[in-house]
Amino acid sequence: MNDGPRICDYGDSTYRQDFWEGQGRGYEDAVERRALARLLPQSGRRLLEIGAGFGRLTGEYRMFSQVVLLDYSLEQLQYARRRYGDDGFTYVAADAYRMPFQSSAFDAATMIRVIHHFEDVPAVLGQVHNALAHSGAFVLEFANKRNLKAMLRHVFGSNHWNPFTLPPVEFVELNFNFHPEYMIGQARASGFALRRSVPVSWLRLGLLKRALPTSLLAHGDRALQQTGWMISPSIFLDLRAEKPAAAPLIASDDPLGFLRCPETGSSLSRSGDAVVSGSGLRWAIRDGVFDFRKPLA
């Protein structure tokens, strides 16, 4: 795994407490939830949440019969499981560059505040496309390189990077901002059709968040979204997987039917506190979380 792209691992970090809980980000949380409500299908069988972390947004997906939470951090998923339990939820610790899912296993997927941690965008988008069924919905959020603040800083010479160029910029290790045209181009090249783009988090300013109630800010954000101007800090893309109609959603009654071995691609069977591939590779189940990061010795 060390030969592949770098991986951002939140591990047992205090990201939940340090970044979200009580940290003045109620506005960002509210507008992201509203964007999801607008873009997601009203119902479905199986949704994949990529980079679910501690489950901040997982409660927004209850219209799906099964929600699969994927993250590289076992600890974050363990917290999410304590919060949501096992009724309708499955927890998978895995590398998103090597997803342990059968082709066409999901009819929807989301990736919110996550892709900015990936240096190989085509590789991870290819994994998502493979996991989705024909016309599967994919809601992708990314950090916008060409946002209004960055453009103003560039004009006044205080940016060390150009917000108007297409290549991503890594402003902190494994934290990338993306130009909208770049990300839309990568999505299309990976087999997705773009239905609409939604610019979000227009009012992400400390002064405004301290002075105005979250509900008013969220209402103002919704109005600014209607402009369609791709200069906000965050962009949501409403995508659909373009695949042959012969690639329908897997609807197996086998609870492990949508999983596969990330090393061999073979199906898995349960054996105590592990799952086993046809070639004999064993993957642990730790506190109810399928751990596909490294096979058992």
Could you explain how this protein is built, in words?
The radius of gyration is 19 Å and the shape is globular. Strand 12 and strand 13 form a beta hairpin. The chain has helices at 15-20, 26-39, 74-84, 121-131, 148-155, 180-189, 206-211, 214-225; strands at residues 44-50, 64-71, 89-93, 106-111, 132-143, 169-172, 175-177, 192-200, 234-241, 268-270, 274-277, 282-286, 289-291. 26% of the residues lie in helices and 26% in strands. The model has no long low-confidence stretch (mean pLDDT 94).
Q: Gap between N and C termini, in Å? A: 16 Å
| Unreliable spans | none
Structural class comes to: alpha/beta
- Overall pLDDT: 94
Tell me the major beta sheet.
11 strands, mixed
- The neighbouring-strand order within the major sheet is 8-9-5-4-1-2-3-13-12-11-10
Secondary structure: number of strands: 13
Indicate the proportion of strand residues: 25-35%
What is the count of DSSP helices, taking H or I runs of 4+ residues?
A: 8
Which bin fits the share of residues in helices? 25-40%
Please tell me how large the radius of gyration is.
19 Å
Order of helices and strands: HHEEHEEHEHEEHEHHEEEEE
Shape: globular
